[in-house]
Amino acid sequence: MVGSTEPFSGKSATILGLAHQLRAQGVSIGYGKPLSHGGEDRNEAGEDADVKFIRQVLGLTEQQTQVPLLFLDEPTVEKGLHHEPGSYYVEQLQQSLAQVEGDLVLLEGLGTLSEGRLFNLSLKEIAAHSQAMVMIVARYHSLLLVDQLLDAQDQLGDRLFGVLINDIGPQDQETVRQHLQPFLESRGIPVLGMMPRSSLLRSVSVRELTKQLGAKVLCRPDRLDLMVEHLTIGAMNVNSALEYFRKGENMAVVTGGDRSELQMAALETSTNCLILTGHTPPPDFIINRAEDLEIPILSVDLDTLTTVEIVDRTFGQVRLQESIKVHCIRELMAEYFDIQRLMQMLEQS
């Protein structure tokens, strides 16, 4: 079971990379996600978007996949507050997992250790009910991460199989290697991988930004799959802006609809998306230039501050829904995850 101590730590990406490596070792894979959130987790067909994506990427059959038993949306939780769930969901979980085919089934947990507790389906409880070992994926912020991992060890006990430390910035890699990793190993917590930060994995498609902003696409709707790695605000004079823009790569530039000089400066640099605030449409020469350069322009009925807040939040909640990210995570896992150690641990368990 792959879990985390906080949301958006990289569980789905880890599962995809891990499944690729295990298959290379001759292990057939099943996949399950016992719980899911409502809202953004569900697609138009009412399915969990991550489950559908992982099933498609791995080419799994229905017999190799366990779909969520519960979507933890407001109505479901409200109902759970008034009805004692008892053993019903535990029995449903065990029955559904018994039908999943594969030498090894990878289960994906929710964002924290406690989610699902109301229904007797917290990460610890699911692991116990399914006789699963647990690997925690933890996004690195600082050495204070150690407290979260020690707490996970206290809760999970012998079921804690190991940890993968994710999203380690270049300035923190020596600290993790020299201090955090040896300490965790000395406390009986195997460190199976230490993944460096990747701008690509944290990037967001223009399509996702359009959705989150409720934006109108003014040009190049065929280029919404471009990936945005950085957000830049165009609010200075054009000379300063040009120097500033040239330092960025694969940017989304937010600026006013009436700032045509800044819009042109952005288009001439590494900009993958131009986001215009206010209610002033850009002049035709901006649209024409963006068309030639194949850069989408979005128009939003929001002020700059609100726009930036939404985009920032979107970067913080990145989902793995693009094939280019799948290729990236496979390469990173191949280099930074100790698959041989994992295989030895599986054989001994």
Automatic annotation (TrEMBL):
CDD domains tied to this protein: DTBS
Domain of life: Bacteria
Domain (DRTGG) ranges: 208-313
Signal peptide: none
Any Pfam family: DRTGG
InterPro entries membership: DRTGG (IPR010766), P-loop_NTPase (IPR027417), Phos_Acetyltrans/Butyryltrans (IPR050500), Ser_kin/Pase_Hpr-like_N_sf (IPR028979)
PANTHER family: PHOSPHATE ACETYLTRANSFERASE
Name this protein carries in UniProt: Phosphotransacetylase family protein
